[in-house]
Amino acid sequence: MKLLNDPLRVRALLIATLSLSGFALEPAWAQTIAWDRPSEGLAIGVWNPSTACPDVPALLVSEIDPVRYRVSVHYFRNEPLPEPPDILEWQRRTGHDLVFNAGLFRENFSYLGLLYGKGKPMGGKRHTSWMGLFVAEPTAGGPSRAGILDLSIDSFDEQQPAYGEAAQSLMLLDRTGKVRVNQTGKVSQQTIVGELRSGHILIMKTTEMTSLHAIGQCLRDAYPTIRQAMAMDGGSSSDLMISPALRQAVQKTTGTHEWMTLVNSGPTGHVGLPAVIGISPRQQSGRP
To answer: What's the pTM?
Structure first.
């Protein structure tokens, strides 16, 4: 009876049973995503969990293989730039395939939390109550090139960081299945970074306002391949940009490309972002 009263164990047992039976897991639980794959190591689609999670709208989702794609953190004062560019300008300047907002910041545009780029701190200080740290590009090499550290149990040496790129924000869902944000009733646009059990990274952007708590519960209950997740900056600062070159490449392929209508590429509706995270392919197949 103890097993039946533990939903995480029941879920894990059912997933293991389906795996042994040869069933595909993601369509059964996460409602099949029609992925576009404009580049090796990058998939883009729309996840609509409304059946399992009525309070969560459709999300624009990108799945990234960090073995094929590198992660770069940018802060406007290190560029240097006189003021924070919007996400369109960030993408134009950096040339990344994908750009999204980093964590929260103060009114003077200083970053709230740890922020590292190319192994060097970018002025942010450790936030004592935010336990999520998105990290990438190990300084000493190693098989894992990107992931999430839970600072309540994982260490991060600020003087000798093990990762060259890092951005701190709110822990949303931890590896035990616990939702780490309170249910406040507050809703807004959200940007989520998730780490899959495969080692791939998910970047998720809501299409409508919703609560972080609802997203955390939905990821836990309806996206079983996710290991843990953290929330980046939300509200008007929640933004994601996919390069025009990739969008043009996808338009030439067959399929509905539902996500294309959810990426706002117009000249309005974007606010200045002091810090962003960019995703670009590693040197392969002639690409920079």
So the answer is: 0.86
